[in-house]
Design goal:
heterodimer; A: about 260 residues; Rossmann fold; 2 domains; two-stranded antiparallel ribbon; 6 helices; B: about 525 residues; alpha+beta; 7-stranded antiparallel sheet; 21 strands; globular
């Protein structure tokens, strides 16, 4: 029996055309469609697979505004046993780690699964942050996971290859692409999940140790628009090559 | 509005516009981009391209072209698959800058503006009562931008042709359709009103219902007092929902329908009023993986029978992929759906009521499970739905990757056949496919009995062989009471003679000649040269 906690986040669809608010501190949320962060989806799938193979329970946790309820319903539909929604409008990474950490402390846990990063701000603070806060093991960027007898062996992606790491429970695992292919929920479960209970907590009522945030958001800006390609024209390959070299020297200044 | 059954052109003053002031270019590099389309079958040539911003400029260009007897080819987004926008000489008019509607707003109308890629689009949205909405849009508006503009208002334009970069003007000219045509019909059903510039520069404002044919005729009175008499006629048309071969002509018809799907030969649209509906409350998909296409087709036939019952939830799309298509997707893209292997069918279900949606999904799933099904997945939530859409679009991408590798092009059909002949047609596809021994895939809008059969040749020799085989398929489709083109159109492919006899084609041609005696506008579309071979 393994007690598994999976932490998931509701993020804007990766194809969203982001518009920055006038105060440059946030994005316009009207018209945005939200999805479960893709790496969190791998974490959720892995949690269900571990439960199916080894027995145990899966508790899905998200922290975010009301709309984030959607992904907890998805988690319940694919096989999570419990769901906890920490209502919050605030996105500070350290505060998120500590708030979720406080909630996890009240639960039994052997494995905490989450994505290697959320695809909205892409900070990647959460997996190691939560391991540090709880004082437990941590393996990141995992693409393969084998559980046996209160411990696990994980394969994690590192520059140029894979690293095989062994760890005992409890442990935080962050999922990388390739860990699995997430399933689709079965039809009856989708609708049953809508009626299941989700435990709702208010982030403000969860007390966390005093802290000074490591940084504060100054301003958001969009990347500069991509410039169009420049076509090199000419009658013969020699002529085109000569023009290209001239452009690389004089315009791009790379030669 | 029917004034003695005579359709009067509007008085337009273009005195103040000098043709030289209208944006244009003779730059070969720019013109180059307008000389082919998605089909890549044709490569044309042109001396000049104009970019009019409004209907007045458009009229001036057309009048000048008529005066000098220069051929004009109209270009939309270039997403067509039949060469209709490819110019064979003369000049090009691109509608890409015709992107705004300037009007005084009537009661219950509002102007919507949108900036995308540095261009400023505008449309008008209105409602005649609380549930009937319309949008007045310019011809150069891309479909995906229309969608973005109306989505925040919870409105929906149902036809949704597959190519989201296509312009609405092009959609009307081709009577475009797509997957949702199964439930919502083609573009034709969603057009309320058109402003049309005739080939000689006369302007007509046509609303559905204003002009009905009279004694099998339409009479148009142009600004210079000429009366154009268009003689309508009856002819045998295929017994299919989707058919865009040739002009749409019936003895008793609405004037607006003559222009929709006319492939640009009768006029250019400068303003289009579309019918809109409220966004359906819930949209879901079921993707079903069958052991083979025989099982999936049996299941579909049964589902189509039940789809007719209307209980507040509707099956709006039925899309089919044969085993070869699925193999192709697996080889060339990364399918995001777990473990698909056989023949796949995607159903879209829409409803305003969640319980009814659930009942329909459950019922549908029960039916599907009576056949040889491997697995089925349901997507109700945005993230899952998106993955299914990606799967749907990954087939054309996979095919293109394959063809690029060999430097060939696909040899495809656009056939639709009547219900009763779908299986027979499918068997014939297989018979010809295995006889020729060139890889092929069969996929598409099976809800409308409209499957795309595509040969994927690896060299010139195979292209040659496949083209010959396609002729067999086209002839068979017509003998089954089907059409050779359900949605792509004839364009410059010279296929009309497969469908209609000489006499019928001649009568259609006379309508074109009456409106455009010198064949100034889009001259090579629809009516090919009978001595030339068809392009496939």
């Amino acid at each position: 029996m393994v007690n598994i906690i999976v932490c998931i986040k509701h993020v804007p669809d990766t194809e969203t055309r982001i518009k920055i608010k006038e105060d440059k501190k946030g994005i316009e949320t009207t018209g945005i469609k939200y999805i479960i962060s893709p790496y969190d989806e791998f974490a959720l799938e892995e949690a269900i697979r571990i439960k199916e193979k080894h027995g145990g329970t899966v508790t899905a946790i998200t922290m975010g505004p009301k709309r984030a309820d959607d992904i907890l319903r998805t988690a319940l539909a694919v096989g999570a046993d419990n769901a906890i929604h920490i209502l919050s409008e605030n996105g500070d990474s350290i505060n998120t780690v500590m708030t979720i950490g406080e909630v996890i402390k009240t639960l039994p846990y052997d494995i905490i699964l989450t994505g290697k990063e959320a695809v909205d701000y892409g900070m990647g603070v959460f997996p190691s942050g939560i391991a540090e806060y709880l004082g437990i093991n941590n393996i990141n960027n995992v693409t393969k996971l084998d559980i046996s007898n209160r411990s696990l062996v994980a394969s994690r992606q590192v520059e140029g290859g894979d690293e095989i790491v062994e760890a005992s429970f409890p442990v935080v695992i962050s999922a990388q692409k390739g860990l699995n292919t997430p399933r689709y929920p079965a039809l009856p479960n989708i609708f049953k999940a809508k009626k299941r209970e989700v435990k709702i907590l208010d982030a403000k009522s969860i007390s966390v140790p005093p802290f000074i945030s490591g940084g504060s958001l100054v301003e958001l800006s969009l990347p500069p628009p991509k410039k169009g390609a420049k076509m090199v024209e000419g009658q013969t390959p020699e002529e085109i090559a000569a023009k290209l070299i001239k452009m690389l020297k004089e315009e791009a200044k790379v030669l | 509005m029917n004034h003695n059954n005579i359709i009067r052109c509007e008085k337009i003053d273009t005195e103040n516009i000098n043709i030289n002031d209208i944006e244009n270019t003779t730059d070969k590099n720019i013109i180059e981009r307008y000389l082919s389309d998605e089909s890549a079958i044709f490569k044309g040539n042109a001396s000049k391209i104009y970019f009019p911003k409004n209907e007045l400029e458009l009229i001036v260009i057309l009048k000048e072209a008529n005066k000098l007897k220069i051929h004009v080819t109209v270009s939309g987004a270039g997403t067509g698959l039949n060469g209709a926008r490819v110019p064979f000489g003369g000049i090009i008019i691109s509608t890409e800058n015709m992107i705004t509607i300037k009007h005084e707003l009537k009661n219950k109308e509002q102007l919507i503006e949108w900036e995308e890629n540095g261009k400023n689009y505008s449309i008008i949205i209105g409602s005649s009562d609380n549930s009937v909405y319309y949008a007045i849009v310019p011809p150069g508006l891309p479909l995906y931008i229309l969608n973005k503009m109306i989505e925040p208002m919870n409105l929906f334009y149902p036809p949704q042709p597959t190519e989201k970069g296509s312009y609405i003007g092009g959609n009307v000219a081709t009577n475009a359709s797509g997957a949702r045509t199964y439930y919502y019909g083609t573009t034709r059903e969603w057009i309320n009103r058109l402003k049309i510039i005739l080939p000689k520069g006369d302007l007509i404002d046509v609303k559905r219902g204003w002009y009905r044919s009279w004694n099998n005729q339409f009479n148009i009175l142009t600004n210079n007092g000429t009366e154009l008499i268009l003689n309508l006629f009856s002819h045998a048309t295929p017994d299919v929902k989707k058919n865009v071969a040739g002009l749409y002509i019936k003895p008793d018809m609405d004037f607006i329908d003559l222009f929709i799907g006319s492939e640009g030969i009768l006029g250019i649209f400068t303003e289009i009023e579309l019918k809109l509906i409220k966004q359906p409350g819930y949209t879901s998909y079921i993707i079903a993986d069958f052991i083979n296409h025989i099982e999936s087709m049996k299941a579909i036939a049964n589902v189509k029978k039940m789809a007719l019952s209307n209980d507040g939830s509707n099956i709006t799309v039925i899309e089919f992929f044969d085993e070869n298509s699925i193999d192709f997707i697996k080889k060339f893209s990364n399918p995001v759906i777990p473990n698909i292997s056989g023949s796949v069918v995607i159903f879209e279900i829409q409803s305003d009521d969640e319980d009814k949606l659930y009942d329909r999904l459950t019922h549908l799933n029960t039916i599907l499970n009576k056949y040889g099904i491997i697995n089925s997945y349901v997507a109700t939530e945005y993230g899952h739905k998106k993955k299914i859409e990606e799967l749907r679009h990954s087939l054309p991408d996979s095919i293109n990757k394959f063809l690029r590798r060999y430097g060939t092009n696909k040899i495809a059909t656009d056939i639709a056949v009547p219900d009763k002949n779908l299986y027979k047609m499918y068997s014939y596809y297989e018979e010809v496919g295995s006889m020729i021994n060139i890889p092929y895939v069969i996929y598409g809008h099976i809800g409308d009995n409209h499957l795309h059969f595509n040969f994927l040749p690896k060299n010139r020799d195979e292209v040659e062989k496949a083209s010959k085989a396609i002729v067999l398929l086209l002839k068979k489709a017509v003998s089954f009471g089907g059409t050779v083109t359900a949605e792509h159109g004839i364009g410059k492919k010279n296929l009309l003679s497969f469908m209609y006899d000489k006499n019928t084609i001649e009568k259609m041609k006379i309508i074109k000649k009456t409106i455009d005696p010198d064949f100034i506008l889009n001259k090579n579309n629809i009516f090919g040269d009978e001595n030339e071979k068809p392009y496939l």
